Amino acid sequence: MFDINKILRPNIKKLVPYSSARDEFKGEASVYLDANENAFGSPLDTAYNRYPDPLQYKVKKRLSEIKGVPPRNIFLGNGSDEAIDVLFRSFCNPGVDNVILVPPTYGMYEVSANINDIETRKVLLTEDYQLNLEGIAEAIDEHTKMIFICSPNNPTGNSINREDVETLLANFSGLVVVDEAYINFSRQKTFIQELTEYANLVVLQTLSKAWGLAGLRVGMAFASEEIIEVMNKVKPPYNINEASQQLALEALNNIDTVNSWIKETLTQRDKLVLQLKNFDFVLDIYPSDANFILVKTTGARDIYNYLVQQGIIVRDRSKVELCEGCLRITIGTPAENETLINALQNYK
C-alpha cells in the first residue's frame, strides 16, 4: 500500500516553502507595490516587469481541459527535467536511497540521480526492449523510492507493455514515474487516465515534442494532489517565466495544427522506414511509437561522420548498451527526409 509519508524526505515534511508576493496576494489590483518590481515597465514591446503566476493557473486550466484532469493534479516545470529533479529532491535521501532505471532509456534520470547523490540500480530491458519484471523485483529494497519508465522509450522508440507497468504500480510501495514525452505519436493511451487508480503514479509529459515548443521549456507532471502539493512546495517560486506561460497558452489553442503535424510525422516515419530498408548497411529498424526511429547499421560511427560532412545531424547511439551499431534518426519534414535519403544513396 502506497503511503506518501513513508517515502517523503523528513526535511521536506517539515519544509516551510518560500512565500512570494504573488503567493500572498492573489487577484487583480490597480497598484502593485509589494514585490519590488520595476514600476515603469520593460524595455520591450511586451511588458515583463511583473512576476509571473507562481502556480501557472491559466496554463493548467487550459491543460486540464485538454488532458481531462483537474489543475490540482498538474505540476509545470522548466522542462520535464525540472520535474525529474524535484521528484529526487522531494522523495530521495542523498547517500541513502536508490532508484531503479531500465536502460537503454533517457539519460537525464541518471544525471539527476547523480546530482542528488542517489544510487541508481540498473535493470536492462529485455532484447525486445521490454521490462525485466523479475530483475526489477530483485533490485528493490527498503530504500528504493522510485522506478523510472520511459514509454514510448528513448532511444528505442517502442512503447512499454502496459500490463507490466500496471504490475509495478500495484506491487511497488514507492513512486512509478512514467515518462510520456512521446505519447502524442503513440498508439498506446496515456497513463494519465490511471491517476485515480494508482496513488503512486507520476506521469511526465512535455510541450517540447509534438507541440513544437522545445525553446519555451515547459514540462508537465500529472499525479495525485498530495504529490503535486509536495512538488509545488519544493520548486523555485517563479519557475515558469511569463513569456513561456503566455506563449504556451496561445499554442494550446491550436490543437488542430498540432494534430495535423502528428499525422504527417507518422506518415513520414512509415515512408522513411521503407526507404531505409533498401540500404545494405541497414540491418534492422526497430518498431517505433515516437517521432524518431532506431536504426541498426553495419557501421554507425562511419555513417554518422559521413552525414555530418553533408550537413545532416543524426544521433549516434552505438555506445549505448543494447543499442550497439544504432543511429537514432528524428523524423523531419518531407524535404529533410528526402535530403537524408539522397545523401545515404551516395554513402560508400
TrEMBL record:
Alphabetical list of InterPro entries matching this protein: Aminotrans_II_pyridoxalP_BS, Aminotransferase_I/II_large, HisP_aminotrans, PyrdxlP-dep_Trfase, PyrdxlP-dep_Trfase_major, PyrdxlP-dep_Trfase_small
Species, as recorded: Mucilaginibacter roseus
EC number: 2.6.1.9
Protein name: Histidinol-phosphate aminotransferase
Keywords: Amino-acid biosynthesis, Aminotransferase, Histidine biosynthesis, Pyridoxal phosphate, Transferase
Protein's pathway: Lipid metabolism; Amino-acid biosynthesis; L-histidine biosynthesis; L-histidine from 5-phospho-alpha-D-ribose 1-diphosphate: step 7/9
Family: Belongs to the class-II pyridoxal-phosphate-dependent aminotransferase family. Histidinol-phosphate aminotransferase subfamily.
Enzyme class: transferase
Cofactor(s) listed in the protein's UniProt record: pyridoxal 5'-phosphate
Catalytic activities: L-histidinol phosphate + 2-oxoglutarate = 3-(imidazol-4-yl)-2-oxopropyl phosphate + L-glutamate
SUPFAM superfamilies: PLP-dependent transferases
Gene that encodes it: hisC
